[in-house]
What we know:
Layout: H1 2-6, H2 19-31, E1 36-40, H3 43-54, E2 59-64, H4 68-71, H5 76-81, E3 84-88, H6 97-103, E4 113-120, H7 133-146, E5 149-154, H8 157-164, H9 168-174, E6 177-181, E7 192-196, H10 198-210, H11 219-231, H12 236-251, E8 256-259, E9 266-271, H13 275-284, E10 290-291, E11 296-300, H14 307-318
Parallel strand pairs: 2-3, 2-4, 4-5, 5-6
Antiparallel strand pairs: 1-7, 6-7, 8-9, 9-11, 10-11
Amino acid sequence: MLEAMYTAAVGDDVFGEDPTVNELERKVATLFGKEAALFCPSGTMTNQIGITLNAGPQKEVICHKDSHIYLYEAGGIMSNAHASVKLLEGAYGKISAETIAEHISPDDVHACETTLLALENTMNKGGGSIYTLEEVHPIKELCSSQGIKMHLDGARLFNALAVTGDRPSDWGEMFDTLSVCMSKGLGCPVGSLLLGSKKDIKRARRIRKSLGGGMRQAGFLAAAAIYALDHHVQRLEEDHARARAIGELLDVHPSVEEVLPVQTNIVIAKLSVIPEEMLGKLAEMGIKAVKFGKDQIRFVTHLDFTDHMLEELRSRLQNLS
């Protein structure tokens, strides 16, 4: 990946003159069956641009109460799109067409107008849970019938595809805009892409500029993303297998009450002890995890976490009281 970055052809992306960025945008748009794509520094930025395209003042965004766009993007829906948010419940961070239908705002002067539904796949707070196409189809039918646009926070979409075997274009058909991350599981240092229609992406470039996301010789970063797409997608199942192994180790530990179902590369453990207490002990053993709620901690596997490290983790956890 570093070699690809060192040798990348670059130009000024603000003027659309970076050949490697242009190549990446064409590659990902084609992969998902969308007309165009926009390379941005982060998934937060691509999410916020997608939301701003389809929501605004007196408009409403529907999402799960544990969505990344709501919990972890610094109030961006309010500060960027100036939109209202309606938060829904659902097991493992997922919401159904039936639940959504019950919460679409009425055509009433007292209510916000529901203009956007946002889903997240995989669902971070749901333990890396996966939406299936069978679950999304009725949601798409509902939103189409109500004139509601759909945005996908696909920060770990490639992890989901590694499990379901779906074609990326199948997911492109479901959503008006998609945010697809090149870091995290794919191992790039920086970058996400927003996918959509040519009209939306043209407007998205203006929004990106206003957020400070216009980049110059960004081809060095785009080259890393192209390399990741060519070399790091097929190996994601290795991360999933190691995550399942970690889940099994934690499931029998006396300080763990429950491990959420491990479908991809995220492991969330509900503890019977204070998270800070266990995290402190883990840190002393050289094991990194994060607090993920009042009684939960999270582990995430990635391409730098090897089988050797997994066995070392197994050994150290056996000595953790």
